[in-house]
Amino acid sequence: xxxxxxxxxxxxxxxxxxxxxxxxxxxxxxxxxxxxxxxxxxxxxxxxxxxxxxxxxxxxxxxxxxxxxxxxxxxxxxxxxxxxxxxxxxxxxxxxxxxxxxxxxxxxxxxxxxxxxxxxxxxxxxxxxxxxxxxxxxxxxxxxxxxxxx
Length: 150
Description:
Number of strands: 8
């Protein structure tokens, strides 16, 4: 909910595409309509989703960059009570498309950090991997999901 209520905020870590509707582009707005305050980190910045036959262009955020972004949020009290003039702490983490192994490993660290600040935090993982027998992500991510995320 908005920072004037006592509901926890949502940290949404998902993809962003310039054209199309996937990841943070479709998750954030409905959550905001429901009254949630959503903090956004884009795991990738692509021209379009990776299922297009002509491919895509763009950048994948690596794990070190994710950890730096979260470090800045923590330093300013944005993960726990105290940020935004005493705003609510992060109570939900939502992840979707992840473009690299280092980023997925960093996600595990971020969730552990937030759960240490708020043991009631809920982690919702949508392991966007692919469809129709084809991976959208590096296949090596599957083992990391099995060993470290689930």
